């Protein structure tokens, strides 16, 4: 049995070896159970094990093992709770990476249905879908903005496997990169840094206003902004669906363009947590090499970069907040931002305005695209409802969150429209929201 999370290991895709490793890890988990309330995977696992007096993980059938993996939405929160991770214990348990290994094994061994493969292809071709959506706005708005549960959405579910009942993030009228190239660059009076913005598919096609405010806030603080030339999807939908070959090809292309940007003297800033996590953590594992390491070392969440600049010697953040500042906010800490182990830059950044902050540390159950798969509705919606209940209980004036997909789930469950932290900061500076009409 190979205790490995290395996709280049010869046993990585071997089914017997993977299932033996699942048995080993599930036995460790059942004796610990610290993660029972984090996601559906663990209650599913313990429910199967508790049917037997000895709770022996070796009794689980392959189908039961598959059910445990299917319930994992790669929030990675279990890693921060686990006392048996490779860094802490010789048992070297990395539950999220084992789930990825199992998913890759099933894809490689043709154990995934054609329907699931079609859904992965639809959700994975983010650049193509975004380009088509912006080229045919009337059609895309009719499809994406259709009422959850409507005939249109049910037809979408039948043809693509995308949930008919989840609220989908709508597409914008103009790409972020189009706006960026048309804008008049600001002349910086005191340059404090240079960054290349990796906009992510979300900001590029669906919520460019986050990118607008990102650039304006950065330039106000003397940070020169450029675009990552050749940036595309980070590949997360493929990785989390088990399509390692496609993910690795996408990742290798992105590593090259990101490394080129770093060699030009720029750091990389990423406004969406899942994409930032993939670039920092997964590219090093699946692509590897000096360029992936270089990119990981120079990639930052957008708030993380600003708070580091503010705390560093010789640079400082503009703290003249003369705009509209809410009295209190609920700040949703996304799982993939927490998993980056870089503190809570967004909370610390917003705290500079004097606002009272309640941190909501609860997964949204979206994980890039997992929550939009129709087969995951029964698992994903209760997670979103739990997040909504925490936000409602906090009863703050404004909701803020870094992840636009999680924010869409918040809109779905609470009807409150969250801001990205960079949008909150822009309004606090008095920077007006740009019209996108």
TrEMBL record:
It comes from freshwater metagenome. The keyword Iron applies. Residues 20-51 form the 4Fe-4S ferredoxin-type domain. InterPro entries: 4Fe4S_Fe-S-bd, 4Fe4S_Fe_S_CS, Cys_rich_dom. Keywords: 4Fe-4S, Iron, Iron-sulfur, Metal-binding, Repeat. This is Unannotated protein. One of its GO terms (molecular function) is metal ion binding. PROSITE patterns: 4FE4S_FER_1 (PS00198), 4FE4S_FER_2 (PS51379). The lineage of its organism: unclassified sequences, metagenomes, ecological metagenomes.
């Amino acid at each position: 049995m190979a205790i490995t999370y290395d996709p280049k290991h010869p046993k990585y895709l071997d089914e017997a070896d993977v299932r033996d490793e699942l048995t080993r890890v599930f036995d460790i988990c059942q004796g610990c159970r610290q993660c029972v309330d984090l996601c559906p995977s663990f209650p599913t696992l313990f429910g199967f094990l508790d049917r037997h007096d000895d709770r022996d993980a070796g009794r689980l059938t392959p189908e039961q093992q598959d059910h445990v993996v299917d319930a994992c939405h790669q929030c990675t929160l279990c890693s921060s709770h686990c006392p048996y991770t490779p860094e802490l214990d010789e048992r070297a348990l990395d539950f999220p990476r084992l789930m990825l290994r199992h998913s890759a094994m099933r894809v490689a061994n043709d154990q995934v249905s054609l329907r699931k493969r079609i859904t992965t292809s639809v959700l994975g071709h983010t650049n193509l879908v975004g380009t088509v959506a912006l080229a045919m706005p009337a059609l895309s708005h009719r499809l994406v903005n259709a009422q959850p549960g409507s005939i249109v959405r049910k037809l979408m579910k039948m043809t693509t496997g995308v949930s008919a009942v989840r609220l989908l993030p709508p597409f914008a009228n103009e790409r972020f990169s189009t706006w960026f190239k048309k804008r008049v660059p600001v002349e910086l009076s005191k340059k404090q840094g240079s960054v290349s913005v990796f906009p992510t598919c979300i900001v590029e096609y669906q919520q460019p206003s986050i990118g607008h405010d990102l650039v304006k806030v950065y330039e106000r603080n003397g940070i020169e902004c450029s675009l990552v030339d050749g940036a595309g999807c980070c590949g997360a939908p493929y990785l989390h669906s088990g399509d390692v070959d496609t993910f690795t090809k996408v990742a290798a292309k992105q590593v090259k363009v990101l490394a080129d940007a770093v060699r030009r003297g720029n750091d990389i800033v990423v406004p969406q947590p899942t994409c930032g996590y993939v670039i920092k953590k997964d590219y090093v594992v699946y692509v590897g090499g000096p360029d992936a390491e270089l990119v990981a070392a120079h990639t930052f969440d957008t708030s993380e970069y600003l708070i580091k600049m503010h705390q560093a010697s010789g640079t400082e953040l503009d703290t003249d907040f003369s705009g509209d500042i809410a009295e209190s906010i609920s700040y949703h800490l996304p799982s993939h931002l927490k998993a980056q182990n870089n503190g809570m830059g967004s909370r610390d950044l917003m705290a500079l305005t004097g606002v009272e902050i309640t941190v909501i540390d609860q997964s949204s159950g979206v994980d890039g695209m997992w929550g939009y798969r129709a087969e995951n509705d029964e698992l994903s919606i209760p997670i979103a409802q739990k997040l909504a209940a925490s936000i409602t209980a906090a009863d703050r004036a404004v909701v803020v969150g870094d992840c636009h997909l999680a924010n869409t789930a918040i809109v779905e469950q609470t009807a409150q429209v969250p801001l990205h932290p960079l949008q909150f900061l822009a309004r606090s500076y008095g920077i007006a929201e740009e019209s996108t009409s």
